[in-house]
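Q: Given only this backbone (671 positions), what sequence would you predict?
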């Protein structure tokens, strides 16, 4: 919305929440919007300090303006108090209007020719003109309070009476360690003076007739500045300035992430560092002081296995540069393995409300008794859980909290089918009318509800029935509920566990279900389309004939006299790789694989004089076999071209090379 307005030259000012909230974390509308054409404003009082009950945020809230104890005209023809962020923001809106009305021919010309860029210029003058303010430092973008005099002077200092407008939108593209492309925009100008230098050094100046300039011969990991001046018919505009830093610094990766997270594994990822020869990675449970370290990684990802389900981990990456120079480790990135149950593993819609006047004060359900108070629109209480049996009914009491008492509506949703949404029969309680008093009622857990941990959401809204994902005035709270099977029902087994995992076998056990006559187990390699099925009358079964060093998944269901349960949630395990195996990315001196990363052909060279059959497989990271070949002869330096046609999507793959003497497993990257 604000971007659309900005393209027409409209610059907006928005009032943040009248709550002591970090908008970067908790959000707010409109001030959490990331548009370049919105100035987000917080509230200042007459002592030039931020009002406590006003939002803040280092990336969302731009500046402060006086709003507390301000006055405005009222309907009676006199004056009345007008405060809060709604009183502060009109000062900024007025500042925008005043700057546009300044006697500046070049701004007017720009506003007509490129209204979008004119709006950005006005925003820059307002933000750069603030007075630094101790109460705003470190909690707002500028760390300052509006100063209209400063902003107006900045505009007039930049103004050209001739209409020869300075170049704008200075950018740097295609940046490497030794090269950069400078670009800019201008209005009806054909030539420019461009100069650049190392910060503090001598200028290199060129006359160019385009709006770009390619720089070469730069020094790696060095700060540069550049300036561009428009040459008009009878005058020049003066210089616009910007800067950049060349790539090639020996530094740790700045951006870490994860993907393919399961109960027992994850793929760790990070951005490429141009100066890197390789990377070292360390990871651990948050609760542990000991790191697991893997060194000499030649790509920007690492597959780790053998993790504990439902556990928080963190990892860091270190860059190894030329000459063995090591950086510090990067900031830690945290992630959670799955296996906690639907309540925590599934992704539910975000929701937050406005609690300036009302909020959820307390929740009582079964043995859950939580006096939550005001959570600024949303309370995450998924660390709390209550057991509920399928087929049973439970009494609850929900109490509202108020600044001023008013009618409130409550709804309760439980994700009974554990699909990550609140829909259909998931609405287990709905207010018929609003009330100022605590609400007491009953919910019933249907026998069809899936067994296990799932999410419960309680929403309170002023003067209307709330929805599950949006709320205006009021609050929402999330809890975990553990749905247990009705006594004597034919439900899927509980307490399923994998024990005694070996290279080619694993054992699964579970808690007996009272009416069970037998159990059915299905399992497969992760990524495979084909399930293997077994049956047993016991509560333990062995899986054999597995492939070593591979992830498997399985489910169990109960067979009763006249019915059967649903299959349990998917569980995972990794078979062991064996004591003679070279771990991922640990090179066997007899094997050379190149190029890695590769584009079309992947070449394998085996320097071995042993007479042994060699099996080579290329797999996706989910275990799908893409290429499988067997070579009965000895090699002794022979090259194998595994992919002649190069018909393979970009991504990370697992390459297995196996003989009777060793198994070598490595990650390879297709560009």
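A: Predicted residues:
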């Amino acid at each position: 919305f604000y971007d659309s307005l900005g393209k027409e030259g409209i610059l907006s000012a928005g009032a943040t929440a009248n709550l002591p909230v970090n908008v970067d974390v908790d959000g707010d509308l409109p001030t959490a919007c990331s548009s370049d054409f919105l100035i987000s404003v917080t509230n200042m009082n007459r002592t030039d300090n931020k009002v406590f009950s006003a939002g803040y945020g280092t990336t969302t809230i731009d500046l402060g303006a006086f709003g507390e104890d301000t006055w405005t005209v009222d309907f009676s023809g006199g004056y009345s108090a007008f405060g809060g962020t709604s009183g502060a923001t009109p000062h900024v809106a007025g500042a925008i209007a005043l700057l546009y009305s300044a006697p500046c021919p070049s701004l007017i010309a720009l506003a007509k020719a490129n209204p979008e860029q004119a709006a950005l210029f006005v925003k820059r003058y307002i933000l750069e003109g603030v007075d630094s303010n101790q109460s705003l430092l470190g909690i707002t973008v500028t760390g300052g309070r509006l100063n209209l005099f400063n902003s107006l002077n900045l505009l007039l200092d930049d103004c050209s009476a001739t209409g020869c407008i300075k170049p704008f939108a200075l950018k740097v593209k295609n940046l490497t360690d030794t090269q950069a492309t400078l670009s800019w925009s201008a209005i009806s100008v054909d030539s420019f003076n461009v100069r650049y230098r190392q910060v503090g050094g001598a200028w290199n100046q060129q006359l160019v007739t385009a709006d770009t300039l390619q720089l070469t011969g730069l020094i790696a990991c060095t700060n540069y500045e550049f300036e561009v001046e428009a040459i008009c018919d009878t005058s020049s505009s003066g210089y616009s300035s910007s800067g950049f830093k060349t790539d090639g610094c020996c530094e740790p990766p700045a951006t870490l992430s994860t993907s393919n997270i399961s109960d027992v594994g994850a793929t760790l990822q990070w951005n490429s560092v141009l100066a890197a020869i390789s990377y070292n990675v360390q990871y651990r449970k948050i609760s542990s002081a000991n790191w697991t370290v893997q060194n000499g990684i030649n790509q920007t990802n690492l597959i780790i296995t053998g993790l504990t389900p439902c556990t928080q981990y963190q990892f860091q990456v270190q860059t190894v540069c030329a000459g063995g120079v090591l950086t510090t480790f990067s900031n830690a990135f945290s992630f959670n393995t799955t296996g906690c149950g639907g309540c925590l593993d599934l992704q539910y819609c975000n929701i937050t409300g406005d609690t300036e006047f009302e909020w959820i004060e307390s929740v009582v359900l079964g043995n859950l008794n939580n006096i939550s108070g005001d959570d600024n629109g949303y309370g995450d209480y998924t660390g709390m859980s209550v057991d509920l049996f399928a087929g049973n009914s439970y009494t609850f009491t929900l109490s509202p909290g108020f600044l001023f008492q008013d009618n409130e509506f409550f709804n309760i949703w439980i994700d009974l089918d554990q699909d990550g949404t609140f829909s259909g029969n998931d609405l287990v309680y709905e207010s018929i009318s609003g009330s100022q008093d605590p609400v007491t009622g009953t919910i019933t857990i249907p026998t069809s509800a899936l067994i296990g941990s799932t999410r419960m959401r309680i929403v309170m809204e002023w003067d209307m029935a709330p929805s599950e994902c949006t709320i205006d005035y009021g609050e929402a709270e999330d809890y975990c509920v553990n749905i247990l099977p009705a006594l004597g029902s034919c439900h899927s087994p509980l307490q399923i566990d994998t024990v005694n995992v070996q290279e080619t076998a694993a054992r699964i056990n579970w808690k007996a279900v009272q009416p069970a006559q037998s159990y059915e187990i299905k399992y497969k390699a992760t990524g495979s389309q084909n399930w293997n099925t077994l049956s047993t009358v016991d509560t333990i079964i062995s899986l054999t004939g597995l492939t070593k060093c591979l992830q498997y998944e399985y489910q169990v269901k109960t067979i009763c006299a006249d019915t059967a349960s649903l299959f349990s949630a998917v569980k995972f395990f990794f078979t062991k790789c064996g004591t003679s195996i070279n771990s991922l990315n640990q090179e066997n001196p007899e094997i050379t694989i190149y190029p890695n990363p590769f584009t079309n052909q992947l070449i394998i060279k085996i320097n071995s004089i042993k007479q042994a059959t060699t099996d080579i497989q290329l797999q996706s990271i989910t275990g799908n076999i893409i290429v499988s070949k067997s070579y009965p002869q000895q090699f002794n330096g022979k090259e194998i071209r595994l992919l002649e046609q190069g018909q393979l999507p970009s991504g990370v793959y697992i390459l297995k090379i196996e003989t009777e003497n060793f198994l070598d497993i490595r990650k390879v990257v297709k560009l």
